[in-house]
Amino acid sequence: MELLLDERGETEIRRQWAVLAEAGLSSPGATHRPHITVAVAREIWPRIDHALERMAFTPLPIRLGGVLVFGARRPILVRAVVVTEELLSVQRRVADLVAPCPGIPADVAPDAWTPHVTLARRVPPDRLGEAVRAVATDHDFSAVVVGIRRWDGDARQERLVAGGR
After folding, report:
1. DSSP letters spanning 62-76
2. Reported pTM
3. What separation in angstroms does the CA of 132 have from each of 8, 69, 114, 123, 137?
4. What does the CA dihedral 30, 126, 112, 119 come to, rounded to 10 degrees?
5. 115-132 per-position pLDDT tens digit
6. Which domains, from first to last, does the chain contain?
């Protein structure tokens, strides 16, 4: 399950993807959509989908902050999302609904989750400094979470479950 950004936030992340792509670094690209992952499972049952669709949702202002690096062998470059009580509440509600499903990674558990938007995957370690420099001078910026979608990576299909866009 993913939180979707408003047009302003999505445009800014896509701009950063383009900067990284121009530098020859792996960014998600035009076919992907900027998002904040809040829950993952190997399988999400239809009853969970229905519960998610009934979940109350209101747009949520957020702030995208500094650049972080996840991992060492195949680093992932991300932009941090500043943690707020409201953001943690949304993530916990979604995670609690998805909790009965099989195959949930430990790093999306409510007490282990690090909110972020991916900028580049599998950055070669020897190019990590270049990747960070390409986007590190960008300032923090505000955005609004306008919806929640379910992304089915196997079927390559998205379904909006709350909100819009």
Report:
1. EEEEEEEEE-SSS-E
2. 0.91
3. 22, 9, 19, 10, 9
4. -20
5. 999 999 889 999 999 999
6. 2-152 (3.90.1140.10)
